[in-house]
Amino acid sequence: MRANFGTQYRLTIFGESHGEAIGVVIDGVPAGTPIDEQAIARDMARRAPGSDPAATSRKEPDAVRIMSGVMDGRATGAPICGMIMNTNTRSGDYAQLRTRMRPGHADYAGHVKYSGYNDPRGGGHFSGRLTAPLVFAGSVARQMLAARGITIGAHIAQIAGCSDRALDPVHMDAQTLLALQESRFPLLDPSLEGEMRARIAAAKAEGDSVGGVIECAAVGVPAGIGSPFFGSVESVVSQLAFSVPAVKAVAFGDGMDIAALRGSEANDPMRMTDGGVSCTSNHNGGVTGGITNGMPVVFRAAIKPTPSIAREQQTINLETGENTTLSVTGRHDPCIVLRAVPVIESVLAIALCELMADDCSLYPHRHTP
Ligand SMILES: Cc1cc2nc3c(=O)[nH]c(=O)nc-3n(C[C@H](O)[C@H](O)[C@H](O)COP(=O)(O)O)c2cc1C
Predict the structure, then answer these.
(1) Inside any domain, residue 118
(2) Less Cβ crowding at N or C end of the chain, within 10 Å?
(3) Is residue 203 part of a domain?
(4) 83: CA distance to ligand 1 center in Å?
């Protein structure tokens, strides 16, 4: 199992959905960095289950207990360990899943990989619950970035085929992104909330689930961040985004659509403005050559429909070796997208901290040999 990420802003996540606790150890936060625990609590609350009818009814406060690395509101330089206790488990809901594998979930692949020793309760280490520690690490990262004028935000770009308008990739401002963070249901066009909720509710009523797309962006990112080849901005963000359960596609700028454009349409014309350099379009999502070019960094992540559904589906019984059917009971998100918004923001924050530290632009007092 590979539960660690990064060489500069280093994370190790741990825990299982129905174990004692989940958490993360963060290494690489410079001593003296202010850590705002109220801001962390706000970010955690946006991902926590049980607060919205479109999400699972499992209620968890997701309060982070900082076990080490922070004193008097500042990082000490030692590893920061954040723990979140699991307080509302109902492992009985998962009894049938020890033998009957959920289609679309990690049950079968995980069983093979770990010879059946993995914890199946609530999805174990494969649970979406493991994204809570990621949001904690993202919140700390976000605070370090904010001190350098970088703001991250995201919105629901689509749910069940109902699409919000896109962020303006050229004239995006920090205020727009901060306002999205304040919203219970982050949309650029709030009039769409009713229709999106109706589509989630309709699927749920039929024992089904829906997916969608999250659009995420960062403004204030200076040009020159990223370490090609393998530390390109796209590859580091994508590695983290694809680590989030249920993410099945990641795309920067125009993404797949850029393939249908001509060069004259896909190129972002460059201008000198107020002594700086900017582009009049942003089809490349603020990244060229794997390096930020000073434009807003913009990417999208596609979230699949929740695999655990009440509707009967074909599957296998590993105990009897027979084909069977499965209707998943228990508490599940009929749509993951809403709760995944702060997770995807966290992915971008963690990636930028890792990349900027690599470039020594996050920790200017550090020197590479
Ligand atoms: C915030 C969040 C919540 C999730 N909630 C559920 C859930 O309630 N039920 C479920 O079956 N999957 C849920 N998932 C998705 C599964 O964990 C994921 O689909 C599964 O591990 C298989 O991995 P894959 O979809 O990446 O292939 C959630 C994911 C996230 C990010």
Answers:
(1) yes
(2) C
(3) yes
(4) 21
- With tokens 């625990």, the residue in question is 37
Global pTM?
A: 0.95
* pLDDT 10s digits, 184-215: 999 999 999 999 999 999 999 999 999 999 99
For the stretch 42-101, pLDDT in tens is 999 998 877 677 777 667 778 999 999 999 999 999 999 999 998 877 666 667 888 999
Residues with CB under 6 A from ligand 1: 56, 105-106, 123, 126-128, 131, 244-246, 304, 306-308, 332-333, 336, 339-340, 343
- Which DSSP state fits 225? -
Q: What letter represents residue 201's amino acid?
A: A
Interval between CA 129 and ligand 1 midpoint (Å): 8
In a domain, 152, yes or no: yes
Ligand 1 atom closest to Cα of residue 333: 8
CA distance linking residue 294 with residue 277, whole number of Å:
8
Instruction: Tell me whether residue 15 is exposed, middle or buried, using C-beta atoms within 10 angstroms of its C-beta: 0 to 12, 13 to 18, 19 or more.
Output: buried
Residue environment code for 312-347, b if the CB has 16+ CB neighbours within 10 A, otherwise e: eeebbebeeeeeeebebebbbbbbbbbbbbbbbbbb
